[in-house]
Design goal:
Length: 547
């Protein structure tokens, strides 16, 4: 077969192969979707289903308000906090952030890791010659091994050893030679990009960001635990409110029973029985409303704690066992405001951002300088018919050389670098205003929380006095009803005022507890005797996938 036929067949084969690859690449991915890990059926995103409900009872059925909970779990506020710290999902999400931030720092620090490189090259060259009829044939084999070291000063050092074997043949003549070369080179910027501070800028920014993440994680811990405390006291208030409404209902039933006896004896008109029955029905609606509010507060607390066996769909009732402890506190406003400024993570975040801004300004100042680089290269060479001879010659340093050079690049105008520097300076100035504004906001929140705490204390005193007087009024109205001076409506109204006064007192007690939580939150602290220390979560991943 002639050389021309072989060439033509080879070209045809390459053409067919290229057409096959092109046709394979023309397939539309969206038709098959084999490359997707999660496949979505069209009806999942396009069809809207209807809600189907099953009838259970009609409006004429009775109401069971005394159905007990399947299970009751008594809970102290300390247990509530412990469960929240252990199980809260918002905390678990946030506690992974410091781990991620630490790995980002590690990844950036790795830019100064040394790297090993290797090149293997084989060449077969037929070189025609105008001097002789026969072509010169060159066979070369090169092995190049080396290490490249990025320097924290901004430069790069490189060491490599190249082993070259060359076989030159012309006709029956053949000659083999070895030419090893050892090279050491370094390139170091002198102005732009020079210095450890400039080249560790990105690491420093991520390190500040890691501290910001830690601060935000601490803030999240405080926020979640404060929400747990608030949820605990709101559930306490809701359960007490339900007890008040149940007591009100029972008193209304007792009033109805007494009225019926008096009507039967002819001591009261029949309309008084109707009035009493209406009062009982009205109290029933109050119980239903209070029970629904209690279930809502209970579900919110269960969601915060996320404890096994007490899920949001669990029928178990949570019963707070810690009672409010109303104690009036003497508070130094200036001292507490100063403590808040020191403890609040939002202010620490701004200070860390200002440190980032300062580093950014320094970095962009360096970027406005001309680019001047100093290059130095040192070589040791060898040559010989045998590899050992060539290496002996190289290490004897009989053939060595070096070069020194300098490169200079000066931007004309340099507007981009100047604009980035001005932007960084403006951002830093903006952050300074933000810091002062945030400090004022923190002091305002602390003063507001202190005043709210004092106002709630006064509400406790007023609520307790009101409850005592409303109870006395109710007892007086009952006695007046018995002697015929008051109607059942008057008694029910006094009873409602007494129940509302009790509810107001309960709310005042729990709001005072919540005001203490708010004051602690405003100062960047928590209530409780024990300190809280968080640790980041390191997710359990398949480390065999990480090489």
């Amino acid at each position: 077969m002639s050389r021309r036929v072989i060439v033509v067949k080879s070209l045809i084969l390459m053409l067919l192969l290229g057409m096959s690859i092109a046709l394979a690449g023309c397939d539309e991915f969206t038709k098959e979707e084999d490359f997707l890990d999660v496949k979505v059926k069209p009806e999942q995103t396009k069809d809207v289903d209807t809600l189907k409900l099953t009838a259970k009872a009609d409006a004429n059925d009775g109401i069971d308000i005394n159905k007990p909970a399947e299970k009751e779990i008594t809970l102290s506020i300390e247990q509530c906090r412990a469960m929240t710290l252990k199980n809260n999902l918002d905390l678990k999400v946030q506690l992974i952030e410091p781990t991620i931030a630490a790995k980002q720092v590690s990844a950036e620090e790795a830019k100064f890791e040394s790297s090993f490189f290797s090149n293997l090259t084989y060449g077969n060259i037929n070189q025609p010659s105008v001097v002789v009829d026969q072509a010169q044939k060159y066979k070369t084999q090169t092995v190049d091994l080396g290490v490249q070291v990025p320097l924290q000063t901004g430069g790069t050092a490189k060491f490599d050893l190249a082993d070259n074997r060359t076989n030159v043949s012309v006709g029956n003549f053949s000659d083999v030679s070895y030419t090893p070369t050892t090279t050491f080179s370094i390139s170091q910027p002198l102005l732009r990009g020079a210095g450890k501070r400039v080249n560790t800028y990105s690491i420093r920014i991520l390190e500040y960001q890691r501290h910001i993440t830690d601060a935000m994680t601490k803030l999240e811990v405080i926020r979640v635990l404060a929400n747990a405390d608030r949820g605990y006291w709101r559930l306490y208030a809701a359960r007490k409110e339900l007890e008040v409404r149940q007591q009100e209902y029972e008193l209304a039933q007792a009033q109805l029973a007494q009225t019926r006896r008096m009507v039967a004896l002819g001591e009261k008109a029949a309309v008084e029985e109707t009035r009493s029955e209406a009062g009982v029905a009205e109290r029933l609606d109050g119980i239903i409303t209070a029970k629904k509010a209690m279930e809502d507060r209970q579900r919110e607390l269960k969601q915060i704690m996320n404890e096994a066996g007490m899920g949001i769909d669990s029928p178990a009732a949570v019963v707070p066992m810690t009672e409010p402890d109303p104690v009036r506190y003497e508070i130094d406003k200036k001292q507490l405001s100063a403590s808040a400024v020191e403890n609040r993570m939002e202010l620490l975040e701004v200070e860390l951002q200002l440190a980032q801004d300062s580093s950014t300004v320094d970095y962009y100042k360096n970027q406005t300088l001309p680019l001047v680089a100093l290059d130095y290269t040192y070589n040791m060479n060898g040559i010989g018919k045998a590899r050992s001879d060539a290496y002996d010659m190289m290490f004897d340093r009989t053939s060595e050389n070096y070069t020194v050079g300098m490169n200079l690049i000066v931007p004309l105008g340099n507007e981009a670098a100047k604009s980035r520097l001005l932007e960084a300076q403006y951002r830093k100035r903006q952050r300074l205003f933000s810091k002062e504004n945030r400090r004022i906001q923190i002091e305002t929140e602390v003063l507001g929380a202190i005043e709210q705490l004092e106002a709630n204390w006064q509400s406790i005193l007023a609520g307790r006095q009101n409850s005592i007087l409303a109870g006395r009024l109710y007892e007086a109205e009952k006695r007046q009803f018995v002697v015929g001076l008051r109607t059942a409506t008057d008694v029910l109204d006094a009873q409602a005022k007494f129940a509302n006064a009790q509810s107001t007192e309960i709310r005042a007690l729990t709001e005072y507890q919540i005001a203490q939580v708010d004051l602690a939150y405003a100062t960047g602290t928590l209530l409780g005797a024990a300190k809280v220390r968080w640790e980041p979560i390191v997710p359990n991943v398949n480390r065999t996938d990480v090489r």
